[in-house]
Automatic annotation (TrEMBL):
Pfam families, alphabetized: AAA_25 (PF13481)
Protein name: Transposase-like protein
SUPFAM superfamilies: P-loop containing nucleoside triphosphate hydrolases
Organism from which the protein derives: Prosthecobacter vanneervenii
Residues covered by the AAA+ ATPase domain: 99-314
Region listing for Disordered, in residue ranges: 45-69, 134-174, 414-442
Composition bias type Low complexity, residue spans: 136-169
Superkingdom in the source lineage: Bacteria
Compositional bias ranges of the Acidic residues kind: 432-442
């Protein structure tokens, strides 16, 4: 119990002057930070922001968006769908690349991803062929029949083993055939090398324009990170304002900082953004790296919404110059209904810096593809079986054969490229007791 002395020394509180406690009201900056952490932003454009801790009064709450309309009026019956006039999407290159597609190109480092990624938009922009891929369709004409149908025509003297093509540079189209505007966002390569390759491909005659990470940094405009909602919106605004029809993202690792490739939920905001671009008829091509297992690196969830996936397999010999690789559709294009043949590409540059592209049909048996996967660093029979869509028994028999032929080294549990001493291959030890794979071959 308090004594009279304690009561006399206790501080006196002026109850009349007590101010009511002010509740915490988040500022626009607080809300923006919260929404950015969630992966997207709901603040309206132009909303003023205030620095945290300044004591500035919070801005007036933004007017909430109107409720979304009910879905019932938009439901189609099968009969209504049957009689709808749906315009055919124009083909941008051959039959496999159409307007509004989302596709991926991946390969290990140094194989030639950027060569392919830079030559594709030039062919798309000018509606010209690229290698053995036919030119895209003119909006006023029927679409191209494409590579496979042109090879199957009767009376053709060319064969699958000898058909070749070299890049033919034409003047820019005009009038109704004007260039298709393409935006190429480069997030990794040096600007000097980008300029060299662009000049070699004579991109100045195309409708391709660049948004380069080094140029952005030097001009003080910061870099681009599609992992942030603000930058995704900046790119969308640029596309809509400038009228681009094709977007090239080179490459995913350098342009999506802070996104865990192995977590599907981390990539989901980017996936929704890419779907939004697709709904706007914007074609998006994403360049990415291969993982250690030879497949496209990261979570497979990103592959669900794409129209096609192209893998580039290194085919260059030690004494060859330039980039040489085989293009293979690991996910066949939804536009063709059937897989397109593998093509062998060889990019070289002459003394003047001009780029020459040679393309021919790649003739590789399944067994040779198995050898190539091992050469590319895929060590597990299980991983190769998944990549090639073969059962493990078939892969096991190829592994035993390749080990006996000294085409590869290691053992059945870990496949390795061949070891050499001088020019002699060293045969690896094969122990049948180690082979615990399935024996059921195709």
């Amino acid at each position: 119990m308090k004594t009279n002395e304690d009561q006399e020394t206790a501080p006196q509180i002026d109850i009349e002057n007590i101010q009511a406690a002010r509740p915490f009201t988040p500022t626009a900056a607080d809300l923006a930070l919260y929404e950015r952490m969630r992966g997207y932003s709901t603040l309206p454009a132009g909303t003023a922001t205030h620095t945290l801790g300044t004591g500035s009064p919070a801005p007036a709450a933004a007017t909430p968006p109107p409720p979304r309309p009910p879905l019932a009026p938009y439901v189609l019956t099968a009969l209504q769908l049957k009689h709808m006039k749906i315009p055919k999407r124009p083909a941008l290159l051959d039959r496999w690349l159409c307007e509004g597609d989302l596709g991926y190109i991946f390969a290990p480092r140094g194989v030639g991803k950027t060569w392919m990624a830079m030559s594709l938009p030039r062919a798309i922009s000018q509606r010209t062929p690229l290698g053995l891929w036919a030119a895209g369709s003119n909006p006023s004409s029927s679409s191209s029949e494409g590579l496979r149908s042109s090879q199957s025509e009767g009376g053709s003297e060319s064969t699958a083993d000898t058909t070749t093509s070299t890049l033919d540079l034409d003047p820019p189209p005009s009038g109704a055939d004007a260039c298709v505007p393409v935006l190429y966002i480069d997030g990794e390569m040096s600007m000097e090398l980008t300029q060299y390759r662009s000049n070699g491909l004579q991109m100045e005659y195309s409708g391709v324009q660049y948004l380069h990470h080094e140029h952005l940094f030097e001009k003080g405009a910061s870099t681009v990170n599609i992992g942030e909602a603000e930058d995704r919106q900046r790119i969308t605004n640029l596309i809509l304002e400038s009228g681009y029809r094709v977007l090239i993202l080179d490459n995913l690792s350098s342009l999506a900082s802070g996104v865990d490739e192995n977590k599907g939920m981390d990539y989901e905001p980017i996936s929704h953004w890419l779907l939004d671009l697709r709904r706007r008829k914007i074609t998006v091509i994403v360049v990415h790296h291969a993982g250690r297992n030879g497949a496209m690196r990261g979570h497979s969830k990103r592959e669900d919404a794409c129209a096609w996936i192209i893998e580039l397999r290194d085919a260059r010999q030690d004494d060859e110059k330039g980039a040489k690789f085989v293009s293979h559709f690991t996910k066949p294009s939804r536009n063709t209904g059937d897989p397109l043949p593998d093509l062998l590409w060889h990019y070289t540059s002459d003394e003047q810096g001009n780029t020459h592209i040679k393309c021919e049909l790649a003739v590789n048996s399944d067994y040779e593809q198995f050898i190539q996967h091992v050469m590319d660093g895929v060590t597990s029979q299980k991983d190769i079986a998944e990549l090639m869509d073969k059962n493990k028994g078939t892969i096991s028999k190829w592994a035993r054969r390749a080990l006996d032929e000294r085409r590869i080294s290691g053992g059945v549990h870990k496949l390795l490229p061949p070891k050499t001493v001088g020019n002699m291959s060293v045969k690896s030890h094969y122990d049948p007791d180690e082979d615990d794979s399935d024996e059921d071959a195709e």
